[in-house]
Design brief:
1 helix, 42% strand, globular, outer membrane lipoprotein receptor (LolB), chain A
């Protein structure tokens, strides 16, 4: 009987510990998202690297509400809140499709505003100035296995995140510079073929 009670107490303790860690992880993520949502706009520079992809590459993103413009090596994505234009430099081609806010994984454009209800959160580390939170998608159809996010506890800024796909391969992003309230016109987020001479347009809408 004593063993039974000991087991029940142990299960309750572990359950309480997991709940406490989840709540703390959610607090950090809430603080992070509130920070970025409070900005009228912002821009960030980052480095990124993929397993087996060689040296780290650099990229940048500018966000204004639900609009964003993302630049990476050889590719540029324009999202004006209604449509997404993906420009591929190597072949001078752009694919235009309707914007679906629920689509995709945690890219640099979504790491600041993802739906918290879509993930299980665990606080992996709370030591020092950085909190490490691990996210596991609830949907079985998700393209990723988990996402690890590092948040600066002093100012709630995202420092780094790593995306693990279903095969175990990972993609790592590190923020190198953040500028709040970037002064950009809405036109900056729409693709203008006049600035890309000879571009082939694939309208997928």
């Amino acid at each position: 009987m004593m063993k039974k009670y000991t087991l029940i107490i142990l299960v309750l303790f572990v359950s309480h510990l997991i709940t406490a860690q989840t709540n703390k992880a959610l607090t950090y993520v809430d603080g992070m998202q509130k920070k970025y949502k409070s900005m009228t706009s912002f821009s960030a520079n980052f480095s990124y690297q993929t397993d087996g992809g060689g040296a780290a590459l650099s990229g940048s993103i500018t966000v204004k509400g639900n609009k964003f413009r993302l630049k990476t090596s050889g590719q540029e994505i324009f999202n004006n809140g209604k449509e997404v234009s993906t420009y591929i430099k190597e072949i001078n081609e752009v694919n235009i499709s309707n914007f679906d806010a629920s689509e995709g994984d945690l890219s640099p454009a979504k790491i600041y505003s993802f739906d918290k209800k879509a993930y299980k959160m665990v606080l992996v580390s709370d030591a020092g100035p950085i909190a490490v939170i691990e996210l596991s998608p609830n949907a079985k159809t998700a393209q990723v296995q988990k996402i690890s996010i590092k948040i600066n506890k002093s100012d709630s800024s995202v420092k780094e995140w790593t995306i693990f796909n279903k095969t175990g391969k990972k993609q790592n992003f590190k923020v190198t510079k953040l500028k709040s309230d970037a002064d950009v016109d809405d036109k900056y987020f729409s693709f203008d073929k006049k600035t890309f001479p000879g571009v082939e347009v694939n309208d997928l809408r």
